[in-house]
Design brief:
Blueprint: E1 2-3, H1 13-25, E2 36-43, E3 46-57, E4 59-63, E5 68-71, E6 78-79, E7 86-87, H2 92-106, H3 115-118, H4 123-127, H5 132-137, H6 154-163, H7 177-191, H8 195-207, E8 213-214, E9 222-226, E10 236-239, H9 245-249, E11 259-261, H10 263-274, E12 278-279, E13 282-283, H11 287-294, E14 302-303, H12 306-309, E15 318-322, E16 326-331, E17 336-342, H13 355-369
Parallel strand pairs: 1-3
Antiparallel strand pairs: 2-3, 2-17, 3-6, 4-5, 7-11, 8-11, 9-10, 12-13, 14-15, 15-16, 16-17
Length: 371
């Protein structure tokens, strides 16, 4: 991939200029949408936008009395650059999904096989006949999460997961971190390798994504001053360690969260999928299996969701968001992608607001239409 002008990418430079300015504005003011933001957008092999704004580290703590961050002196703040890694949060799920489809392609995992066939000790999932497909499509009926962070040790955490039955109607969509956690355990059981090794050897190393890895990740953008009652654990200001409390409780490697990455690395990931699973000499999936990932309702990927894809939604755009402020969208119909990385939870979490994600995606969609 190469950086070049919007015109070389077949994109309207006026819309992309507006995109860049609007992203910069997200970090402005006393209470910005995010302390820092990186945006990368492109079409085909060309990166047309790669910009950074704001701060990787702006606050030393959060003050609940004033409901505001305690700012570092300007000389001590750390600016965001295009090379700054961010905690991807739930964008991690896409890598777990690709790792699973790689095993489906190899014939070692069955799409409609029952989880109990691989994990008989997960007796609740086995008893209810939860399938691999249901995990990948969030239709297992499992609740969104469990308080694994409150367990005394790993044995208690695993006992809780093994005993957890569906609470919803199987076949009905209910977004759940537990789906990708169970999928992680399936993958680790059938391969004998940890998820971080599967992601490294099967995805990031072949694609040359050298900045993408599970934490710790020194130099990453800071996230939250994580304390109760607004958080689920008392950990203080976080930087370079996973924000998600359950992923933290599981040692930082989890199917639903834990990866750190940069905008450029995620652009490579998007490019590989848009090119049918290949990037340069590397191939991580065959074209038919990429299509399987991205065909509605998507496997791990959300498809055509205007709330964060804006006007890119509607023709098969796929992607995901992360609680920390991250998102990516790839649009096979126009061969375009958008990566938006932000630390919206710095210095503390707020009610999610995906309007800036949707607005950025709409700018890219209009940049295609304007050419």
């Amino acid at each position: 991939m190469r950086g070049d002008t919007p015109e070389r990418a077949g994109l309207d430079p006026r819309e992309l200029n507006r995109l860049v300015q609007e992203v910069r504005d997200l970090t402005a003011g006393e209470r910005p949408w995010a302390a820092g933001v990186v945006v990368v957008a492109g079409r085909g092999p060309v990166i047309a936008v790669e910009e950074a704004a704001g701060w990787a580290v702006r606050y030393t703590s959060y003050d609940p009395r004033t409901d505001a961050g305690v700012e570092l002196p300007p000389r001590d703040r750390v600016p965001v650059t295009v090379d700054t890694p961010f905690d991807l949060a739930s964008v991690t799920k896409l890598f777990t999904a690709v790792a699973a489809v790689q095993q489906i392609e190899r014939g070692t995992l069955g799409m409609d096989a029952r989880v109990g066939d691989y994990l008989p000790d997960f007796h609740a999932a086995a008893r209810h006949g939860i399938t691999v497909r249901e995990l990948l499509t969030h239709t297992s009926g499992l609740r969104p999460e469990l308080p694994l962070y409150d367990c005394a040790d790993d044995a208690e955490r695993m006992a809780m997961l093994r005993a957890e039955p569906p609470v919803g109607v199987p076949g009905t969509y209910t977004y759940s971190d537990l789906n990708l956690l169970l999928l992680q355990f399936v993958l680790e059981r059938i391969t004998g390798r940890r998820l971080d090794v599967l992601v490294r050897d099967g995805i990031t190393r072949p694609l040359g994504m050298t900045a993408t890895r599970f934490g710790p990740c020194p130099g990453a953008a800071a996230t939250e001053d994580q304390r109760r009652p607004w958080a689920k654990a008392d950990r203080g200001m976080l930087r370079g360690v996973v924000h998600d409390e359950n992923a933290w409780a599981l040692g930082g490697v989890a199917g639903h969260a834990g990866l750190f990455s940069t905008g450029r690395d995620l652009a490579v990931f998007c490019r590989a999928l848009l090119a049918g699973g290949a990037y340069g000499p590397a191939r991580i999936l065959g074209p038919d299996f990429v299509e399987l990932l991205l065909t509605p309702p998507g496997l791990g990927f959300a498809v055509d969701q205007p709330w964060f894809m804006g006007e890119l939604a509607g023709r098969g755009a796929a992607g995901h968001t992360g609680f920390t402020g991250t998102s990516l969208v790839l649009d096979p119909a126009t061969d375009t992608y958008l990566v938006l990385l932000a630390n919206t939870v710095h210095p503390r979490r707020r009610p999610p607001d995906s309007r800036p994600r949707a607005a950025a995606a709409t700018r890219l969609a209009r940049a295609v239409k304007g050419t």
